[in-house]
Amino acid sequence: MNNYFIILAAGSGKRFKTKVPKQYINYKSKQLFEHSLKKAENSKLFKKIILVLDNPKKIKKKYPNNILIIKGGKERSDSTIIALKKIKKYKPTNVFIHDAARPNFSINLLKNILKNLKNNKAVVPFIKPKDSIKYNFKKQIFNLDKKKVILTQTPQAFRFNKLYYYATNQKNKITDEASLFINQNHKIKFIPGENHNDKITYLSDIQKSITYFGIGFDLHKLIRHKQLYLGGIKIPFHSGLKGHSDGDVILHAIIDSILGATRKKDIGTYFPNTKKYKNIRSPKMLKPIINNLDKLNYTINNLDINLICEQPKVSKFRNKIINSISKLMGLEKEKINLKGKTTEKLGLIGQEKAIACETIISITKYD
Ligand code: ZN
Fold it and tell me: Rounded to whole angstroms, how far apart are CA atoms 174 and 176?
């Protein structure tokens, strides 16, 4: 197992318009380069892993001794040469070169490359293009037969001595090490790559998202001669819920959970007990809160509700209430759950003097 894995992560990523260079951005809860590092490590195929960065001082984390972190060069090909020179003293047999911008390759691909390296000096994964391809030559556009076109990916693997010789004697700028072998008319074994092993080039290649949770709670007193509203609909019952509004505990708890998840204080901040909101129906309060969620690019993942009361029995109205909430929130019914709880006839709720509700919501913000 005299194999070495070089990760190139020294680029400035000019097409990637963020303050942080691309290789350091957070992608699927890790810095981009860490995905390649972890996979190479977990494969247990490599004696050493060499991480080539623009500035190794940016790494505060302690890595094991088999991971070398070194400073790269101006261009990609400069970084490759620096890394190859660094490991020459170990007399490697094989070396893999990989772009940190491809975090999604599989360990199987590594194994397959290594297997093919037994009888070949250069092994390069490729995929077929999906788009039609044109070629611009001296200001004239030609059609290319896409069946004859291959797109090369990384990791690419080589016999160390051969690659070292080609890389240190190269004159032209190259964008991958396969080019060195092609320029020298040296045979490459091309093997099937992986469609998901895409290069992350633009910020839009990664949809960044953060998920938040919010809880809500509400309780209203039950009083005679008032209509009971739960989840935005009328429920036939001997009493209704007392409040400045219609007293809909479910919708109020939902509003508070949304405000919680979006870090926007509470329901009283937006709907104080003023004349303006006297006897307001709760769907009217929920609507602007939902509209604001859409405006800020939040998506609701799910909503779970505990309705705490002795009567009415939730099971009797569950579907109606869920339908109503689904319509009011523009949320699929499958994402809403409503549970009924009693307090075993204990306390004010048990004596049918009040109804309470608690909710939890999960929302994701996409940039
Ligand atoms: Zn309320």
Answer: 6
